[in-house]
Design goal:
Elements lengths: L3 E5 L3 E8 L1 H4 L4 H7 L4 E12 L1 H16 L3 E5 L3 H10 L9
Parallel strand pairs: 2-3, 3-4
Antiparallel strand pairs: 1-2
Amino acid sequence: MAEIILNITTTAIEFSGELTRHSIMQITKKSITKLFLPSSVTLDLAKITRVDTAGLAWLFYLLEQANIDNCQLSFANIPTKLDKLIRLSGVEGFLPVK
């Protein structure tokens, strides 16, 4: 089974594992809201090993939820596979990258 692991610090959230339709289903909406308690958070994606279009869509969902919670969300260390998917999907520039 696909797995995603979140390592949470005061200003960053490190994702590791797979960012796929199977792994994102493991994360509840309630736990997502807790991610955006600080006013600014960076999602570090350096350790993502696999990504699909559902994973990319989920990142946009997180961006929307952070905005609702008045949290400035940014993304760091975009893996090559995710960058390629972003370009193929035509959404370059939509994710705020540090």
